[in-house]
Amino acid sequence: MLRFKIEKAPAPVWFRTLIPFIAIVVTFIVTSVFIIWAKANPFTAYYYFLIAPLSNPVSAIEVLVKGTPLLLTGAAVTFAFASGYYNIGAEGQLLAGAIAAAGLGMVLGPLPALLNIPIMLIGGFAAGMLWALIPALLKVKLAVDEVVTTLLMNTIILFFISWLLNGYWRDPVSHQPQSATIAPSTVFPKLVVHSRLHLGFIVAVLVIIIIYFVIKRTALGLQMRSVGLGKDAARFAGVKVGTTMLIAALVSGGIAGLAGVGEVAGIHFHLISQISPGYGYTGIIAATLGGLNPLGVGLAALFIGLIDTGAQTVSSAMSIPIYLGNVVEATLLLVTLSMFVLQNYRIKRV
Amino acid sequence: MVAIEMKGITKRFGPVTANNQVDFRLEQGEIHALLGENGAGKTTLMRILYGLYSADQGQIFVNGQRAHIVSPKDAIGLGIGMVTQHFTLVPTLTVAENAVLGYIKSFGVNPHSIQLDVKAAADRYGIEVRPSALIRHLSVGERQRVEILKSLYRNARVLILDEPTAVLVPQEVDVLFETLNRLRADGMSIIFISHKLYEVMTICDRITVLQDGHVVGTVKKTDTSQTELATMMVGRETFGVSRQGERPQGEPLLLIDNLCANDPKGFPALKGVSLEVHTGEILGVAGVSGNGQSELSKVLAGTLRSTSGQVTVASENLTCRDPDCFTAARVGRIPEDRHEGMVGELTVAENLALENLGEFIHNGLLDQKKIMAHAEKLIAEYQIKASPNDHTRILSGGNMQKVILARVLSRSPRVVIASQPTRGLDVGATEYVRSKLLEQRDRGAAVLLISEDLDEVLALSDRIAVIYEGRIVGILTAKDATVTKLGLMMTGAREAEHAAIQN
């Protein structure tokens, strides 16, 4: 008789790449209960969830649209986490970028788009950095826990947006609290006509590639990793721990700011307070799902984009409650994250 | 009677065979040493016995019965207790609470009754602890006693101690040995993992020597000698590298002037230390641990800010500068704790390059080829048993120390600050490190050797400074230094004299 045993050792690489797929199967089994409860066929539901969005170009492009802000917030979180700086504030930094984009979009009108769009990107990046600056300085200078401060900064900026939109940025024409529409020359060009896919997607993919190279291949990246993995040893070897962390935190904020620019200049064209349904937080999930490897994070962000799109398809196609889509989405994330424990074990024949 | 018998134990980790057909017998009522160099497989064997690893092959018998131990719970059930180097105590709980933690099953805990209970157990085995004391208020030696008590409270009859003296100061070692003798008298069987020969010869009845995962032999203490054990351990009979001959004193290179610094709790640990280290000499700093050595090495590594005083290297002021300034001034630093110098999760190649990253940049990117070539060269030159892409954390203590030596010494530093450079290393690695330090001296570097190992200081130093309570009580030349003199100074003899004069 064959006997097997489980041993604590890194799982083989082929198995690790399988984990997300196993998670999909497990989630399917778990959530089937709810789908059957809602009197629908779970197999059909899953078809709409995972396959249908990719079966036609229109919704496949929508997956990329949904994935765009997540690519950026995922990248932002990954960059900070790599240096051991736990930036939970990508949401707030995204909103700072959105504010900058809306503000610039309103004043930049007369200039040509070729000039305006880089200004929008730089402005959003700078705004995200600025919003990340206070918690980063508190961390580096006074060792204040960044998890708490970055999180609190998210709430502060939401109130700030609310103040802007109900006060002097409020568009007098609209019934909703929103800012005036940005100038056409500041709008991101579409990548595919009649779709919502905009320049921001290219920016996001570039950012993922750039941070991959920065983290893996540059001196800054090695210093960041050394600080993240062993702060004292890094300091001993002469790495400027504070400066490295500060750079990582600020660049992270800047990248998150770019996500906000994309949402304003590519999707909404004005500032609203609900411009982000928690992209900053979902970015943490994408970063974790992707194992903090920029390329993995990119895939994870697009995958979350897929189930986001699928959640809408499934509820409209099968007239089951829309929140069931959210349940499946949440379960999948929970299961995948739990399954990551498996990568620490391997099965051996005794 | 045989308490434990392990037969034909084999354990592999990937390509490495940690234990190869190991047979081991522990008699009841004996203290049995497992002796071997780092990486010889001592700890692996004991982790198998305690259920932390499972053997690939082999059988374990406890009191003559075949035992299947797959978790520490099984081991505890069979009366086996283990005290590891890293204690598993909760600092915010009391001694009594720690002793019963995870063992009592009742929902409510009456602090008074468990304290009485634990006190009774402590008294029975003659272990001095106060059951109501909080762990965080205890010294390392006391914590170790609590760990032992914890095992005893769980009715252990076999106690495994993994390098118990590595963390202790000499006085605490004496207390530990008294405790062990008492336990042996009580019929307990004790396995004592060590690589320190004289300790093994002091406390143990029988000694099993491991080398590269297999048993070299088991001998009675009465039938052997330190020299024979050393030969068995390393397979060669050389012991001790030492300084050859006198050298004329060179130029002063490292100047430490009236240096003061605080310990992590904010109390003064260095109270005006002044030293001069000349080119081509080793200046040893001897002292009982905890007299400021740690702070001195940290200030000289740039990781601790001094509160006053000056550090100068060849007239360059390095007071309160960052570690990279020390590297730039060609000061090579070997840290007190190896793990403080190496990022465990980075590769050997990355750690070797980390101090001088500027040299490995090509067109803004890291030059991977150069980093790898650099690592391969140093690995060969310093005989490091690792490949460049290994994570540093998996290296044995000796190899990790060689990585640090390679990183520091390959730069031909003008000044070398070596703090406890051979602590926890086996005979072979110790010898290697010492010979490398002597090489630096002969090359003309100024070497400051901060060590609690008096033999090491005596063997290597041209001059010896003794540190006591944050002050240098005196400096002797190698010629004048004797163990007795140094020993007296290490207890602060100079201070006592002063006090006597002033009265």
What's this, in brief?
The complex is a heterodimer of chains A (350) and B (503). With 350 residues, chain A is mainly alpha-helical. Chain A contains 13 helices and two strands.
Return the structural class of chain A: mainly alpha
Q: How large, in whole angstroms, is the Cα Rg of chain B?
A: 24 Å
Strand content of chain A: under 5%
Strand order in the largest sheet of chain B: 6-7-8-3-9-10
- Give the overall shape of chain B, derived from the CA principal axes: globular
Key terms:
heterodimer, A: 350 residues, mainly alpha, 72% helix, globular, B: 503 residues, alpha/beta, Rossmann fold, 6-stranded mixed β-sheet, 35% helix, disordered C terminus
Structure description:
The complex is a heterodimer of chains A (350) and B (503). With 350 residues, chain A is mainly alpha-helical. Chain A has helices spanning 13-37, 42-55, 57-82, 90-107, 113-142, 146-166, 199-217, 219-229, 231-236, 241-268, 279-289, 294-318, 322-339, and strands spanning 4-8, 345-349. Chain A has a domain at 68-276. Chain A has a two-stranded antiparallel ribbon. With 503 residues, chain B is α/β, with parallel strands linked by helices. Chain B has helices spanning 42-49, 72-77, 95-100, 111-124, 140-153, 170-185, 197-203, 226-234, 293-301, 323-328, 338-341, 348-353, 368-381, 397-409, 427-443, 454-460, 483-490, 493-502, and strands at residues 2-13, 16-27, 31-35, 57-62, 65-67, 80-83, 158-162, 189-194, 206-211, 214-220, 252-262, 268-278, 281-286, 308-313, 316-317, 331-334, 361-362, 365-366, 415-419, 446-450, 463-468, 471-477. A six-stranded mixed sheet of chain B has the order 6-7-8-3-9-10, sandwiched between helices. In chain B, a hairpin with a 5-residue loop joins strand 11 (252-262) and strand 12. Chain B is globular. Chain B starts with a strand and ends with a helix. Chain A binds chain B through residues 5, 7, 213, 217-219, 221-223, 225-226, 229-230, 232-240, and chain B through 54, 301-303, 322-324, 326-327, 333, 335, 339-346, 350-351, 353-355, 357-358, 360-361, 364-366, 368.
